[in-house]
Amino acid sequence: MIYVRATGIPYVFAPCIAVCRDPRWGAVPFVAGNKKVAACAKHYVGDGGTTKGINENNTVIDRHGLLSIHMPGYYNSIIKGVATIMVSYSSWNGVKMHANRDLVTGFLKNTLRFRGFVISDWQGIDRITTPPHANYSYSITTGINAGIDMIMVPYNYTEFIDGLTFQVKNKIIPMSRIDDAVRRILRVKFIMGLFENPLADLSLVSQLGSKEHRELAREAVRRSLVLLKNGESADKPLLPLPKKASKILVAGSHADNLGYQCGGWTIEWQGLSGNNLTQGTTILTGIKNTVDPETKVVYKENPTAEFVKSNDFSYAIVVVGEPPYAETFGDSLNLTLPASGLSAIKNVCGAVKCVVIVISGRPVVIQPYVSLLDALVAAWLPGTEGQGVADVLFGDYGFTGKLSRTWFKTVDQLPMNVGDPHYDPLFPFGFGLTTTPTKAN
Ligand SMILES: *[C@@H]1O[C@H](CO)[C@@H](O)[C@H](O)[C@H]1NC(C)=O
Ligand SMILES: *[C@@H]1O[C@H](CO)[C@@H](O)[C@H](O)[C@H]1NC(C)=O
Ligand SMILES: *[C@@H]1O[C@H](CO)[C@@H](O)[C@H](O)[C@H]1NC(C)=O
Ligand SMILES: *[C@@H]1O[C@H](CO)[C@@H](O)[C@H](O)[C@H]1NC(C)=O
Questions:
Q1: For the Glycoside hydrolase family 3 C-terminal domain, which residue ranges apply (predicted)?
Q2: Ligand 1: does its nearest atom lie under 6 Å from the Cβ of 167?
Q3: What confidence tens digit (pLDDT) does each residue in 150-165 have?
Q4: How far apart are CA 125 and CA 148, in angstroms?
């Protein structure tokens, strides 16, 4: 076992040297001092591969597919010392992950030698049965015996504690299972230094939203943008855009909406719309901050084609995307953008040279519009620092990002993964055009 004090200096205890000699020693949870947090990798495992992408659904795939497509994130996070792993509501081939002893105890704890603790999702053991909580004693037995160490019980925790205690006393759940859970939870707490400093370190509160952190977030935005199209051909690129122009148009539902830039799980579970929920820079503000002072920036969320044609814009930036969502609210069988976004693309790009920036948590239907638009950028959910988008659009920095997912042509191709025999994506996994910074812009 490796013990990391709050100072961040690792201490290796003699009894544990055998573990540390093991080439898999990185499976030990690691927290580098009081300025780092205990992380949680989730949702174990196959959560991204459910049938039709439906939340909490069933992932149908053979073991080889599970290990090669869905498991690599866990290999990496365990080696980096992730302290906790949360189990998925979803099932693998019909077996609820919260009940899957083979994958939680067998693979995660025994094969990968994960030494942090396994936590359930919110009412995760309740949902082992259909309907949820139909047989709670069964849920307790099955979840604990699967190898879950900490159970997230949002409401009636005495029911859980009483049920668990009864089952341990009656040897339905072996004491060795409790010992394993307690050992793992205590190990993480020791490593976090909670026994030396049990309370939150309030001296760090002033760091929240600090300039330094916003700069880092802005850099993350710059580096995560993926340029999917840039002009009709490589010798006629549209990007980087000139900062100096007489008049430019910024359009689209996501151009001036911090809540939309941030997506779900921001301030509220399902996210919000608008600019007064948190501090930050919208993409529109970022553009205004970046262009030449003489460039006139016209912002119109949903311009008509007539409006665009009747103005002499040098070029247009259209920012569209998905509204915020989390979990089941994000389920979509069509993966289309809202109609307002599609009409913004048509009205603007049909009339003037345009770059379309897509704000989305995933690839969306874009193929029908690719020939209409001049440049296309996947910005994912850039968060509060919309300035990072302008930094790259106008060439202060180059585009460098690559697709970490395959971008489909039509939803009926899904699921489609790199390596599939009939791989026919719109943009393949790893795709991303580059530009070079133009300091003279
Ligand atoms: C609940 O599950 C247990 C098995 O753990 C079973 O013995 C019992 O009959 C079930 N109760 C109901 C009401 O289905
Ligand atoms: C909590 O669970 C116990 C045992 O099932 C039950 O008797 C009690 O009514 C529950 N309390 C609430 C507030 O649901
Ligand atoms: C801004 O926030 C306030 C609450 O602080 C709310 O009452 C108001 O409706 C919000 N305005 C917009 C445009 O969202
Ligand atoms: C696509 O699916 C979403 C979510 O289910 C739905 O709200 C929307 O109306 C659908 N769009 C079309 C064009 O069918």
A1: 225-434
A2: no
A3: 999 999 999 999 999 9
A4: 9
